[in-house]
Design brief:
Blueprint: H1 5-25, E1 32-43, E2 54-70, E3 76-79, E4 84-86, H2 96-108, E5 116-122, H3 132-147, H4 154-169, H5 175-180, E6 186-188, E7 195-196, E8 204-209, H6 216-229, H7 234-252, H8 256-273, H9 278-289, E9 294-298, E10 305-310, H10 313-325, E11 330-335
Parallel strand pairs: 3-5
Antiparallel strand pairs: 1-2, 2-5, 2-6, 3-4, 6-7, 8-10, 8-11, 9-10
Helix pairs in contact: 2-3, 2-4, 3-4, 7-8, 9-10
Bound molecules: (3R)-3-hydroxy-3-methyl-5-(phosphonooxy)pentanoic acid (PMV).
């Protein structure tokens, strides 16, 4: 028996520590709110899934806000433009990815039965290539960590956001969450820490919505199938990677004429990959005809938004008006100089 005494003391101490630390980690949820914002991929979408670099711009004026409030009962209720109802009933809806993320966050905070109201207020149009699902994930993760006063570094934030992005998009590169949580343009390579890029000193981006839902999951799958059927399409992917590297140089030099030409070349390659469509081509043509230095789809394509580069604010206003005339349901502007 004497031989077992140290072992029993050790077990007792382990159990005591476990019990005490459980008491400590059983935290209380406080009301909290958190924000994130939209993003626009300047160049490199789709190719980024295959390890090529991409450049994406955060759009902080197009905001996502999440409010989280504890409830005295155990009801877990969601209010949003996409889904209204109980967390448990969201599994078969478009909200399933975010619902899974929320359940995992509740497990992380040892709060699976905690009642709450989660309210999502979004300026972002869903499924338009502006990062709506990633922005929601980022704000939800931030809100839960704020509600439990838990620290959250950027790498952990991106790992959490990847949970829902995987369910929603299948094979996400991670660029959306990285940019929806950043305040500077991002140089993004899959699997690497995103890097901030310096902003150019002039130029305005005009984003225009075709009004048609882009389907990221389907578009990414279509590109994967194309690469399988026709391995020569790999040249389009590496070509997009090269254009992205050239775009970074043009941005650093404030060389908007070259940047515009690079965007036009990227649009050609994306169309050859099969992710453009008629409404996108119409808006791209209209932007170019009205003074855009370059124009292309942004995000997954097959609908969603286009991006046009304007030399200055007055040119951007002309382009935005022309895009509305050509059928854009909404336009936004992002001034590099501001
Ligand atoms: O979700 P969207 O439309 O912003 O597209 C994301 C960009 C893709 O390169 C098409 C996919 C990805 O995960 O990088």
């Amino acid at each position: 028996m004497g031989n077992y005494v140290p072992f029993l003391i050790l077990c007792y101490n382990e159990l005591k520590y476990f019990y005490e630390s459980r008491v400590i980690v059983m935290q209380v949820m406080h009301a909290a709110s958190a924000i994130s914002h939209a993003k626009a991929i300047l160049i490199g979408e789709h190719a980024v899934v295959y390890g090529q670099p991409a450049i994406a711009i955060p759009i902080p004026t197009v905001r996502m806000q999440v409010e989280l409030k504890p409830r005295a009962d155990q009801q877990q209720r969601i209010t949003s433009a996409m889904y209204n109802g109980a967390l448990t009933a969201a599994a078969t809806t478009r909200f399933a990815g975010i619902a899974t993320l929320i359940r995992q966050l509740l497990i992380r905070f040892d709060a699976a039965l905690q009642g709450f109201d989660l309210n999502i207020i979004s300026d972002l149009p869903p499924e338009r290539g502006m990062g709506s699902s990633a922005a929601t994930a980022v704000a939800v993760v931030r809100a839960f960590h704020a509600a439990y006063a838990a620290p959250l570094d950027h790498a952990a934030l991106l790992r959490w956001a990847d949970i829902s992005e995987r369910i929603i998009h299948g094979n996400p590169s991670g660029i959306d969450a990285a940019t929806c949580s950043a305040d500077r343009p991002q140089w993004f390579v899959r699997g690497q820490k995103p890097r901030s890029l310096a902003l150019p000193h002039t130029g305005v981006l005009v984003i225009a919505d075709t009004g048609i839902q882009g389907q990221t999951r389907l578009a990414v799958q279509a590109v994967a199938e194309r690469l399988k059927m026709d391995p020569a399409s790999e040249q389009l992917i590496s070509g997009l990677g090269l254009l992205t590297r050239q775009a970074a140089v043009a941005m650093a030099d404030d060389d908007f004429k070259t940047l515009g030409a690079i965007m036009n070349s990227a649009q050609e390659k994306l169309a050859a990959l099969g992710v453009s469509n008629h409404p996108i081509e119409q808006l791209v043509a209209s932007a170019r005809a009205h003074g855009a230095l370059g124009a292309k789809l942004t995000g997954s394509g097959k609908g969603g938004c286009i991006l046009a580069l304007a030399a200055d604010g007055s040119s951007a206003a002309t382009i935005a008006a022309a895009l509305t005339q050509a059928g854009a349901t909404e336009t936004w502007q992002y001034d590099f100089a501001k």
